[in-house]
């Protein structure tokens, strides 16, 4: 019988990798994990966590102005980007330490370095050779960089968390969730923001009414949206960026942020050395058991061709460890009705089907909506509204989709997600007594 250094070795100490290695070690097997960068992966270092902190900071800008309507005297308010970034860095460093402690306490061997396959059981980690019976890839993804002329003058989302100063005018390329969220972040802190998108509306894949509603709201704030447009070239003159579009317009700005999607982090992993099948874009192909075409090699999270969300990667890593080392083959991740959020302004929360997809799946769909000014703005004077929507299959009365664009949408949607996963009917929503006065009560009073 072949002897290996580890029973289970994980490549990548992000959310999915750390969870899987910790759970596996708890089941009594010898586990190692390799990481070349800071612990916690994209989410902790250049994703969910710092982005939410910056979004909070951005929210304080309009909130301070709104306070005037409630009697607060606000004078001489200033914002310091450097203080925000320094405090953010302290928090991220704290989280890095927590992840290291989690691995240490679980008995997982942490090897600092870039791991790549030598063969299907052997890894080279910056010159250190280790072998493992089973290997799991959890290297995540990274921002896709543009390829047009002058693309070196643009930054990607990873870079935005380390800017030395707040730009006066930002051009953001791409209007998916990352582009829309950074538009919120920079605008709330006082930057002028221009959003350039190649499609006919922002947030492709979201419910159409939500897309249209958010676009209207952010235009009212002063964010400029340019649709059906691509960037052809960026030039730099006197510390200014000049963005030329395919409509021959030229926009002068201080910063260009390209947010045109993400790609799996599989470069230089040596996948071919282990004969691991992957798509042309680098995504690792896995089956329902997270197995690659090599039976003892697995992959979870953003590096695969599945759902790219941090909580999904964590769930997949946990389930895989239980299946492999705790005799729980029945353990599985439910990919149905995953609630998600966009931390725009106003933010979005959604779960289940969009109206468009629901109409493709069911023959008898009815939608209920509410469009109103939230109570806080009756005194703040801000011209901002909230939009809510329930998508119902009339044949069963089951709510198959729920969507919000408005204050506190992500916090509301987590609870609504439970109801949708439990196949709650519209009648269940209707007989629920609302909490008054809240925006959330609109979900149980929708009649039109």
Plain-language structure description:
With 448 residues, the protein is of the alpha/beta class. The chain folds into three domains: 6-143 and 263-325, FAD/NAD(P)-binding domain; 151-260, FAD/NAD(P)-binding domain, CATH 3.50.50; 340-444, FAD/NAD-linked reductase, C-terminal dimerisation domain (Enolase-like, domain 1, 2-Layer Sandwich). Helices cover 31% and strands 24% of the residues. The protein has twelve helices and 22 strands. It has helices spanning 15-26, 41-46, 48-66, 81-106, 157-160, 177-188, 208-221, 310-325, 355-361, 377-380, 409-421, 426-430, and strands at residues 6-11, 31-35, 109-112, 115-117, 122-125, 128-137, 141-143, 155-156, 169-173, 192-196, 224-226, 231-237, 240-245, 250-253, 255-258, 262-264, 297-299, 340-342, 348-352, 365-372, 386-393, 398-405. The longest helix is centred in the first third of the chain and has 26 residues, at 81-106. The chain is globular, with a radius of gyration of 24 Å. It starts with 5 loop residues before the first strand and ends in an 18-residue tail after the last helix.
Total strand count, please?
Answer: 22
- Runs in which pLDDT lies below 50 for 5 or more consecutive residues are none
* CATH-defined topology of the largest domain: FAD/NAD(P)-binding domain
Number of helices: 12
Provide mean pLDDT, rounded: 97
User: According to CATH, what is the class of the largest domain?
Assistant: Alpha Beta
Shape: globular
């Amino acid at each position: 019988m072949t002897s290996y250094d580890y029973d289970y070795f994980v490549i990548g100490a992000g959310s999915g990798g750390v969870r899987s290695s910790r759970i596996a070690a708890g089941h009594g097997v010898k586990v190692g994990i390799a990481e070349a960068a800071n612990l916690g992966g994209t989410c902790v270092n250049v994703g969910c966590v710092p982005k939410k902190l910056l979004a909070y900071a951005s929210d304080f800008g309009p909130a301070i102005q709104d306070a005037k309507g409630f009697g607060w005297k606000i004078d001489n308010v200033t914002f310091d980007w450097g203080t925000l970034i320094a405090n953010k860095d302290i928090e991220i460093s704290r989280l890095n330490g927590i992840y290291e402690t989690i691995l240490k306490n679980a008995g997982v061997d942490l090897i600092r370095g870039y791991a790549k396959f030598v063969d299907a059981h052997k890894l080279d980690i910056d010159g250190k050779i280790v072998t493992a019976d089973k290997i799991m890839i959890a290297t995540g993804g990274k921002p896709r960089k543009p390829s047009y002329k002058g693309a070196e003058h643009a930054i990607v989302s990873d870079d935005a968390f380390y800017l030395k100063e707040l730009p006066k005018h930002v051009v953001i390329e791409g209007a998916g969730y990352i582009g829309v969220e950074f538009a919120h972040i920079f605008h709330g802190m006082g930057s002028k923001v221009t959003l350039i998108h190649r499609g006919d509306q922002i947030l492709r894949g979201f419910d159409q009414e939500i897309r249209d509603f958010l676009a209207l709201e952010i235009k009212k704030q002063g964010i400029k949206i340019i649709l059906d447009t691509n960037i052809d070239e960026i030039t730099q003159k006197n510390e200014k960026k000049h963005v030329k579009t395919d409509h021959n317009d030229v926009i002068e700005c201080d910063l260009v942020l390209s947010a045109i999607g993400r790609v799996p982090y599989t470069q230089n992993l040596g996948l071919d050395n282990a004969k691991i099948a992957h798509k042309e874009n680098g995504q690792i192909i896995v089956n329902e058991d997270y197995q690659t075409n090599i039976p003892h090699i697995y992959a979870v999270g953003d590096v695969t061709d599945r759902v790219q969300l941090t909580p999904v990667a964590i769930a997949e890593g946990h389930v895989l460890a239980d299946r492999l080392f705790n005799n729980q083959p029945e353990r599985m991740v439910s990919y149905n009705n995953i609630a998600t959020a966009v931390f725009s302004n106003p933010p979005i929360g959604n779960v289940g089907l969009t109206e468009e997809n629901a109409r493709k799946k069911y023959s008898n769909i009815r939608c209920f909506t509410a469009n109103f000014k939230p109570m806080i703005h009756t005194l703040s004077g801000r011209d901002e509204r909230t939009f809510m929507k329930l998508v119902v299959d009339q044949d069963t009365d089951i709510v198959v989709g729920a969507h919000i664009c408005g204050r506190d949408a992500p916090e509301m949607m987590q609870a609504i997600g439970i109801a949708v996963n439990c196949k709650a009917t519209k009648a269940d929503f209707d007989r629920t007594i609302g909490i008054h006065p809240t925006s959330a009560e609109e979900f149980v009073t929708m009649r039109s």
